[in-house]
# Entry
Amino acid sequence: MRKTILFISFLLMLMSCKSIKNYNAEITRLHPVSDLQKDVDKLYNQLQKHHPRLYQYTSREVLDFKFDSLKQSITEPMDSREFYKKLAPVVSHVRQGHISVGSANKRYTRKESKKLKKQKFEFYDLDLDYLQNKLWVKGVKGRDSSVVGSEVIKIENDSISDLIKAYKNRFSSDGFNATLHDRSVGKYFSSFYFKDKGFMDSLQISFKKSDSIFTKTFRRILKEDPTKKKDSTTVSKRIKLTKAEKKAAKLAAKQKRKFNRKHGYIAETKNYTRNFRFMETDSLVACMNLRSFTNGTYRKFYKESFHKLDSAKTKHLILDLRDNGGGRISEINYLYAYLTNTDYQFLEDSEVKSRTPFLTAAMSNTTPNSLKVLSAIVSPIVVIHNLIKTKRKDGKLYYSFKYTKPKSPKPNHFKGEIYVLINGNSFSASSLISTHLQATKRAIFVGEETGGAYNGTVAGIYKIYELPTTKLKVRMGLMQIDAPYKQTPDGYGVKPDVAIVPTSEDVFLKKDVELEWVLNHITEKENKPH
# Structure
């Protein structure tokens, strides 16, 4: 039996290695023009079939022309990465931020992956920001801080201005606003560069600081040097714990795990996505910093935070949604019940293109066969559920979430004044809850226009489709997610009542100008004679 298991494992490993080798050969070879043009047609057909608002911001005539022009422009064979550079700008004309085109990147065997995990690329240690039309290093994860405060002017032979211009054309916000482009192209610059250039062992980067220009080489290095021996004198002897101490340590570790889940701990960055604190000793002002709605168990965090606000009789709450890229509808619906002071309906029915949208998502050509088998087994239940939830109205299909039902505020909802900090990276779910707060005049908004649209977005669930020839993966939303509020013209984000955009000098001096404005405004209000 053991030999049989070992033999099967060996066969699976050989098949996996062969599959990886074939995939890598496929994405790097030059694809015939006719096959590339077929990939364009396949993708456009998928978008037309599944995307419920494909022509919301760009007319059918214009999109037809864009995709047809792309096909006509393909006159020579090219590999998958070069095709990505031509395809992504065309897809961005849909102007729906949840559509993304992935580049075709090399896959690695288990042995190669294990080796790579022991290394780090120094380039990825740079914390970059795009401000005032320049790319800046605002921080580093490693020990070398000499480049902090520098402007990045060139990488290898490419000027930063050329790279930024190209990358901005390869993704889109919801609609016509440009704030998402400026914020995201800086924050995720290294990801855009990887999609553009692929795997690199080293990079030469030119910087400008205090009118002087210098160049540094960033390499792929070992995370820890295995040849470096530890000084035996610094290694402390292992202390044997008593039974009571072991029990206490185990309990402390359990409490820490609970705390991490509640606050959305991210191990990679060692940061939390949910933070709450009082700004003053008298609890007059509190700040809730939310960087995402994607991870952890959120209910206890909000329940405890708003209990503290209620007990302290806090008058002003600052809700910081800057750089919050969105996440779960369930979380923002739960949070909103603590922020509103009136009954509310959180969502409208979602427009879809299929009566079984969840099955459409599950049965994509990127879904592993094992999950397809499982989906087929449970499909009768899924189909019945989808059919019950989906209805036709005015010639269109709509899916009804539970969030469309009227709800009331939480008994201990916040009754004071709310300030919301937003920027171009406030997207998707963070834009949706912002729409509610602005439409009901529940908050004062400070910062810059959100990258997500006021009038909703196509998201909810996603289909990830792989193009047959080039193997590029394209993600598309399947549901129109709308709050019951609309503004004209369509295609713009939630705009601030007080527009403030930090400068590079503010960032390097670690000045939070948006937060400072709010605190000064509150102080002035509190000090005014009544």
Q: What stands out?
A: The longest strand covers residues 212-222.
